[in-house]
Amino acid sequence: MIRAVSIFFLVIILALCYAQVASPEQEKMNKTDQIKLPKPILKGKISLEEAILNRRSIRSYKQDQLSLEQIGQLLWAAGGITAESGERQYRTAPSAGAIYPIQIYALYKKGLFHYNPFEHSLDMVKDEDLRRDLTSVCGGQGSISQAPFVIIICGDYSKVTSRYGQRGVRYTDIETGHIAENIHLQAVALGLGSVPIGSYDDGKVREILGLGAGLDPLYIIPAGYAK
């Protein structure tokens, strides 16, 4: 009887210790809502040349919501995995040294999400529509609040500069450009419009998105049906 009681209290103590050492990140992951995205389409209805020809910066959008298929396709074009070879994975945009310092966030009426390329899914970060908040720190550019879907490209410069020194900043910016162009051309291929936005208050965007240390917002891209 005494042994059983001792074991019981030991289990309680261990459980309490675990609860105390569990990090906020672990607790956040446990509460995360995940949306699995449909598999990307690998052959579209128009050619690459037609997409390049028809790409325009679109700043006014209809209120029509995008489907999960369209959302998944845009995010896959941004940073999805295209092939695997052993432990190495290839993505839709090239990265210096295959470091991949870019993190993709997506914002629409259901909330703020982080794109997980390994599972081709959306992991919820905040369950609130932050498009108007984001607009307010981007000089009031209405295309952000008007668009049904907004992609925010963020990067960790330190991951690249730790290997390439100061030139790693340029490599990260170049990678951001690769990703942005993929998004714009994929939007055209889906019959959508998009616009690149680079004017915003970095600190306030970081605060709205709740970005971790070392992660900077680099590009904001609203997308949707052109009005």
Account of the 3D structure:
With 227 residues, this protein is α+β, with helices and mostly antiparallel strands. 43% of the residues lie in helices and 22% in strands. A hairpin with a 2-residue loop joins strand 4 (102-108) and strand 5 (111-116). Helix 3 packs across helix 8 (167-189). The N and C termini lie far apart (75 Å).
Number of strands: 9
Rg, rounded, reads 21 Å
What strand line-up does the widest sheet have? Answer: 1-6-5-4-7-9-8
- H/E topology pattern: HHEHHEEEEEHHEHHEHE
Q: Average pLDDT value? A: 88
Computed structural class:
alpha+beta
Report the β-strand fraction as a percent range.
Answer: 15-25%
Quick one: biggest sheet?
7 strands, antiparallel
Number of helices in the DSSP assignment: 9
Residue share in helix: 40-55%
Short structural description:
By secondary structure, the chain is of the alpha+beta class.
Lay out the secondary structure.
Blueprint: H1 2-21, H2 24-31, E1 34-36, H3 48-54, H4 68-79, E2 81-85, E3 88-91, E4 102-108, E5 111-116, E6 121-126, H5 131-136, H6 142-146, E7 149-155, H7 157-164, H8 167-189, E8 193-194, H9 202-209, E9 216-224
Antiparallel strand pairs: 1-6, 2-3, 4-5, 4-7, 5-6, 7-9, 8-9
Index terms:
227 residues; alpha+beta; 22% strand; globular
